[in-house]
From TrEMBL:
It comes from the Bacteria. Its EC number is 1.8.4.12. It comes from Dyella mobilis. It catalyses: L-methionyl-[protein] + [thioredoxin]-disulfide + H2O = L-methionyl-(R)-S-oxide-[protein] + [thioredoxin]-dithiol. It is an enzyme of class 1 (oxidoreductase). Residues 75-197 form the MsrB domain. This is peptide-methionine (R)-S-oxide reductase. Pfam families: SelR. Keywords: Oxidoreductase. The gene is msrB. One of its GO terms (molecular function) is peptide-methionine (R)-S-oxide reductase activity.
């Protein structure tokens, strides 16, 4: 009798686990009204927890370190979340055409967040006109919120910049920027969204 109860419990628990796993990773992977089925969308890898710097939308105040789950999505889910142009840049390491996006320094105080996961990336106070046609900054809002990596495409050696919150490609950093850092974080407009501070 104990063995029968044990087997029933294992089989029942396994079925519940499978259904729960599908509902979390696949059943709701498609957007609203997409008609996407569980079998059509492969499950994304489990997300890890990151320690990033968080900032207030009110005035850009540094809220300190916070635990954030890295956003891990399938290509299909990224396509639903991003425009075609943003998907090409952020998930395929593309580059938008110069002067094609909003690149001028905004008149209001604010910051730029990742278009994919909302991680705080740059304070508008560090933005400058580089004349390149892409938004340029002399430092990120927090070093741990961005990731540097080697980019050897097109026969060049460059330092690529990605969002730490979702591994999305943002642009590159060069050593021809202004003081105080001498750096130029050359970003793609479509990879970011500007948030104007609510309190000046």
């Amino acid at each position: 009798m104990d063995r029968r109860r044990f087997l029933l419990a294992v089989l029942g628990g396994g079925a519940a686990f499978t259904v729960g796993g599908l509902s979390a990773a696949r059943l709701f992977a498609g957007g609203k009204g997409t008609g996407t089925t569980a079998a059509a969308t492969p499950a994304a890898s489990p997300a890890q927890t990151l320690l990033l710097e968080c900032f207030s939308d009110d005035d850009g105040h540094n809220l300190g370190p916070c635990n954030v789950r890295k956003l891990v999505l399938t290509d299909e889910q990224w396509h639903q979340r991003l425009s075609d142009a943003a998907f090409n840049v952020m998930r395929r390491n593309g580059t938008e055409r110069a002067f094609s996006g909003p690149h001028e320094k905004p008149n209001s105080k604010g910051m730029y967040r990742c278009a994919g996961c909302d991680t705080a990336l740059f304070d508008a106070a560090t933005q400058f006109d580089s004349g390149t046609g892409w938004p340029s900054f002399w430092q990120p809002i927090a070093k741990q919120n961005v990731i540097q990596g080697n980019d050897t495409s097109y026969g060049m050696v460059r330092t690529a910049i990605s969002c730490a919150g979702c591994d999305s490609h943002l642009g590159h950093v060069f050593d021809d920027g202004p003081a105080p850092t001498g750096l130029r974080y050359c970003m793609n407009s479509v990879a970011m969204r500007f948030v104007a501070f609510r309190v000046s």
